[in-house]
Amino acid sequence: MPHESAMSAGGLRDAANAVPPRGGAAASARPGGDHALAILDVSRTFAGMRGSAPTQALLPTSLAVADNDFITILGPSGCGKSTLLRIVAGLDVPTTGEVRLDGRPVRGPGADRGMVFQSYTLFPWLTVEENICFGLREKGIARARQAQIAAHYVATVGLAGFERHYPKMLSGGMQQRTAIARALANEPRILLLDEPFGALDNQTRALMQELLLAIWERERKTVLFVTHDIEEAIFMANRVVVMTARPGRIKAEVAVPFPHPRHYTVKTSPAFSDLKARLTEEIRVEALKSA
User: Fold this and answer.
1) CATH code: domain of residue 208
2) Whole-structure pTM value
3) How far apart are CA 279 and CA 288, in angstroms?
4) Could you give the count of Cα atoms lying within 13 Å of 15 in the half-sphere of its Cβ?
């Protein structure tokens, strides 16, 4: 298995800021700051097994996500963060309430939502390029166009030279770069990420944060990002949503005041430390409740 690509953080940012082959921010943005996503009183209760009591994972929860926003969802383990994200993705069904994307109810999975999981979910029998093209092929896009789109996103995530490699030949960070490229290649209306960097070492995780943020700063996709990491939640987001212990609900919404483009050195600033201390206390209170 190779080490991470030797491309520096600055090189990743330069690649991420390359001109996209289609659409981009101008194509996806809608005027007036409309809400791209509306989560309306969504709850989730799981039936008990063999006569045991049902488990309420999520209390009725509402959240309005603006066009081109980047929101991180933070909370203790088992609070329903991933459940909420799966409902938005159409991979689970709410017990009550509904999710609307651009005013239309979400009834199941769709190409308008790109999902990236913590576990490596690439198809092991496909190369990097073939994985990125998977959704494009399903849409019936011409092969030449698939190759053009794949080449752009391979460069965007810093994997030039690895197009013909299979997942088993890649490190964890490189696999997640491929997964992000695959999601972006389909031009989703909203990007959903469930702790995508949770299994990576600290150095790779920091580089991946910068890479994804650079891509967002250029393309301005609407993003929901689930994480346990408070520093990551602050660095990535425009707004941090804090959830309570199970059964989860939104406890607080905290605006992140740092401008874009956002440099990694912001993590050492007094304002960042103050916000991290505030959110640490919020999460600690909920973690003690769940314990």
Assistant:
1) 3.40.50.300
2) 0.86
3) 14
4) 23
